[in-house]
Each structure stands twice: as structure tokens, then as C-alpha cells.
Amino acid sequence: MALFEWDSIYSVGDEFIDNQHKRLFQIANRFYNAYQAHQARTVLGSIFDELIDYTILHFKDEEELLRQHNFPEFHQHKRNHEKLIGLVSRYKEQFEQGDEGIEARVLDFLKLWLNGHIMGMDRQYKPYIVESSIRTNVRPMQGTQRQTGTQSVRSKQTNRNR
Ligand SMILES: [Fe+2]
Ligand SMILES: [Fe+2]
Question: Which end of the chain is more exposed for a tag (fewer CB within 10 A), N or C?
Fold first, then answer.
């Protein structure tokens, strides 16, 4: 069962970033399903690690996109990402310590973050990025199946537009 459902209402106007958001939802759902199925803590722990790693990668890519378009609220957005990373690290510590009820608290936090941050802050840059992409003739990132590495796809994008 999917606790986190990506919907087009979550779209930020950039297919590449949308795909990363979808993947975050998928990982969060795997965490939820493993929790529901009473899987071993090691299983939950490795999904949690994957979520943190992918989040760090996603934040870097998203910040790169905002930087490329000189998004005026870039620093505020980046600070918010840093805050989320700080929070998720603290949850991970509590998870490692085996705190009572931590899995449910993690799920609440994921709702706040995936629904809250993406629906709120991420969607705020949508009109700006869409407009800037048209004005500067830089197409929004096209979705790829890329899993790792930030620079390569961005530079490919730049080359494509030359
Ligand atoms: Fe995002
Ligand atoms: Fe963001």
C-alpha cells in the first residue's frame, strides 16, 4: 500500500526534479511497507539510509537548478534543505538508538517533509523556473533514469542547448 502518493499537483514544472520527488515518495513507501510488515530493524535502517542518501543528492540537484536560474529565494530554500537534513539525521540517530516509537515519528516527519516541503516551498519556485526556462531558452531538465552523479547530466543539458 502506498502511504505517499505523488500526484501531478506536486509538479514543480521540471520533469527531472519531479522524477526525483517521485523516487523519494517510493523510498518513503518502502519504509512504510517494511514497517507495516514488521520487518527487521536492519531492513528499515537500510531503507532509511537510502532515503537520506537520495535526499542529499536531490537537494544538491534542486539547488543547482535554482542556482542556474538565479532563483531569488535560493538561500532561504537551501537553508530549509539544511534544516531538513539536520532533522532527518537526528531521527536517524534516534532510530539507531532504538527509541520507542521512532518509526511512527519518522513517518510523521516524512509526511511533513514530502507533503509539506514539496507542496509548499518547492512549488513556490515553479512559476519562476518555468518562466525563466522560457526567457533564457534553457529547457527544464528532462527526466532521466539517472540515479547518481550531479554534474554529468547538468553539463549534458548545457551542451544540448548550445
Ligand atoms: Fe525537492
Ligand atoms: Fe526543496
Answer: C
